[in-house]
Amino acid sequence: QRVYRSSSVTDAKDGIDLFWSYTVCDSLEDWDHTSVKKQTLGGATILATTPQAYFPPYHYKRNELGEVLSKPGEEYWNKTIPFEGAMIDYLDQLQDLAAGDFNVEWTFGSKASKLIHPSSAYTASVQDVQDGLIDMAVGPIWVTGERLTISSYTVPLFYSPTVMIVPAPGVDDSIGAQTSKVFAPFESDVWLMIVLIIVLTALLSTWFSGESDRRVQTARRSSRTRGRDEPKRLNYVIWGRLGLDSCLRTGTYFCSAGIEQDDGASLPTKLLLFGFGFFTLVVISAYVANLAAFLTQSNYQYVGTIDEATKQGWKVCALPATKEELEVAWPDTKFVFSGAGVGSYHGLIEEWDAGKCKAIVYGFANLELKNKLCERDLVITKSVVLENPVAWPIRSDYSAGISYWMYEAEKKHGLKVESLKEEYDAKTEQPSCNVQFSPEQSDSDE
User: Fold this and answer.
1) Which of 58, 131, 331, 393 could covalently link to 126 via disulfide, CB atoms 3.0 to 4.6 Å apart?
2) In terms of C-beta density within 10 A (0-12 exposed, 13-18 middle, 19 or more buried), how is residue 69 classed?
3) SS (H, E, C) 1-12
4) Residues 358, 360, 361, 366, Cα dihedral to 10°
5) What is the value of pTM for the model shown?
């Protein structure tokens, strides 16, 4: 049978639990289980705000001129100035989808929480949830171990990759760099195999032709004529000379995509050279097919991964919110955690400008950040350092209900935060340069 805990006639503080069962106390004919399912939040009013660090296009406010602000000021505590952004629109559409199951009242965070967490406005907003000042914080807030000890979260909205931001790479156009492209189509083990096959073919062709015996006999007769008789040493010299001569000859034929022709050669020699000719055909075809692609590639000089930065001994700027995760994932990397008090990309840029690090790891890139990277000749790589879920810290009483509507919105209505963000991006101006970098994309654009 199915029962429900009732709070209509008793309270938890009384220590009495009262349950109601339709199957025992009433008829199942008038039991509407769908009404129970829809009461996820029961019309609750959720007190919400954003972190005290605007991040267009996810969340922000405007000044009196209608300009989008990237840093909060006194307007943050002014309730008459509405919050805007992709996540605000997303929550509004969730509310419409819920059809009265919950309502949202917008407020602001406390200044005290920033004193407790001066390095991160986002962690400060999580603290406001725990302190009961707000019910939910709305923004691109990472789920971290530290924050999970403070507050519960909704289901993840999406997963944010934290990537490397490094100085823009230079191109090596030296003769050595250009010459090295000739060997790029094959790996080193393939080149080693080719050299071994050339040497083996050269030695066998000399052996099958009988040229080694003729050379040895001729050299011995010449030695006796001169009054010298050192057969062992003479044999080593002759065989070495023959081997070198044959290897050079066979290698020359291979490099010119040709094969030695001798109508009077023995059958074993012809069979050997036929096999070597077929091998040459396959290798040259594969080499030429790949060579053009490698010749058009640029030799970039840059440190683009966290592994390379660690080997180079680089100091890497990062946010304090991800300190535990980064130190566990990359224990040998020299991280510099921002202490600028902002806890966002503003603090990371300040650390970079101060010369405290040679690279940055960060997860989001809006228009303002991209323009700041352009000004400093920095690029965003595809090297993933961490991947954090993004969700909203929320009172545990409301976590299941809001998570339910998030799930419904995505699975049944195709509503996602990232889709709304793309709409905002399409309507805003583009950065002053292309900060997204990958060697493959750059070569294709040339």
Assistant:
1) 393
2) middle
3) CCEEEECCCCCH
4) -160
5) 0.65
* Spans of the chain below 70 pLDDT: 1-39, 171-173, 209-239, 263, 298-301, 339-343, 438-446
How, if at all, do strands 44-49 and 102-106 pair? parallel
Please list the helix, strand and coil fractions of the chain in percent, rounded to the nearest 5, in that order.
50, 15, 35
Partners of 389 in the beta sheet?
Answer: 159
3-state DSSP assignment of residue 347: helix
Q: Are 357 and 351 in contact (CB under 8 A)?
A: yes
pLDDT in tens, 320-349: 888 889 999 999 999 998 764 455 788 889
CA dist 127 and 333 (Å) reads: 30
d(CA 166, CA 254): 44
Q: Is the dihedral of CA 197, 200, 203, 206 positive or negative?
A: negative
Q: Which long-range contacts (CB under 8 A, 24 or more apart) does 283-288 make?
A: 283/194, 284/257, 286/185, 286/186, 287/185, 287/186
- Report d(CA 303, CA 165) in Å as an integer: 10
Nearest to 373 by CA among 164, 170, 119, 69: 164
Burial of 102: CB neighbours in 10 Å, binned 0-12, 13-18, 19+: buried
Q: 306: closest CA among 365, 384, 388, 379?
A: 384
CA torsion 417-419-422-424 (nearest 10°) is -60
Nearest to residue 381, comparing CAs of 325, 294, 295, 300?
300
Parallel, antiparallel, or unpaired for β 315-318 and 334-337? parallel
Q: How far, in Å, CA of 188 to CA of 265, rounded?
A: 34
